[in-house]
Amino acid sequence: MRNGSAGSVCLLWALTLLVAVPVQALAADPLRSWNDGPVKQSIIDFVTRSTTEGSPGFIPPEERIATFDNDGTLWQEQPVVQGAFLKEQVKALVKEDASLALKQPFKAVLEGDLALLSTMDEPELMALFAATHKGKTQEEFAAEARTFFKTARHPKFGVPYTQLAYAPMLELLQYLRAHGFQTWISSGGGTDFMRVISEDTYGIPPQQVIGSDLKEHFDDQGGHPVLRREAKVDHINDKAGKPVGIGQHIGRRPVFAAGNVRSGGDIQMLQYTKEQPRAGFTLLINHDDAQREFAYQEKNDASLKAARAGGWTVVSMRQDWKRIFPEGR
């Protein structure tokens, strides 16, 4: 009897300790690069609700679509990586036609005016791509992009661009996939450019990448068929073009979407995700960490205003992220 009482006391003591320890601490933290707080908790709460059968917020697995902007959302965008790649392509183009070196925007690109590239919108970048990549096959373009990613280094951090994916967002992608979400990229960048690195960098297969595109045509090429790029823009996957691209490629509205503060390019995608019969989760990354990365805002604060009006979750990189880049970067 005495032994039984002692056992009961031990059991009661153990249960007391169990209750005292936060549930999150008992398991590996899937979002370990996020500081504890309202933003991190809101993500966990949404995923818990949407994957718990019987919950009012339950989302069937086939409807768990999450879309992410790329530049400034999944990795750094100062400079825009595709703009840095474009500079190398313009150099090659000028070797064939020296007169281009005196024309804008080719002149500014050649002079290394990364500030100009950072202010260029997606249509301007894609127009340059049309000039530099007409006639190339998908395979030729992919080979050039792979070479760039192997050799290019970020001007401030001195490492390959693929090492500058945000650690908290990589964890978020893994966390969502572990709970049955499909993770897609929906970015203003070139589709074929992002597809070269999407799987190795983010775990997102190339068929789940939506971006801006040039027109292409089928070329039999003497029994060796290829797709060849044209000097015409087919689709700009920016601003209002993002919901269009999502509808064409996925056929479902996202229930989770993430973008960032820069040029207002993600506003419509986040609105499209938030405003539906089942309100989706919308995440906006605010670049306010000049010490660890960069600090910049839109001139008119359009994205932050839209976030306040729409009830989006805003991430302060300075306050909400323990670290910006993966360990060992």
From TrEMBL:
Pfam families: HAD
Keywords, sorted A to Z: Hydrolase, Signal
Gene3D superfamilies for this protein: HAD superfamily/HAD-like (3.40.50.1000)
This protein's record includes keyword Hydrolase: yes
GO molecular function: hydrolase activity
Signal sequence coordinates: 1-27
Name of the protein this chain belongs to: Haloacid dehalogenase-like hydrolase
Organism field: Corallococcus terminator
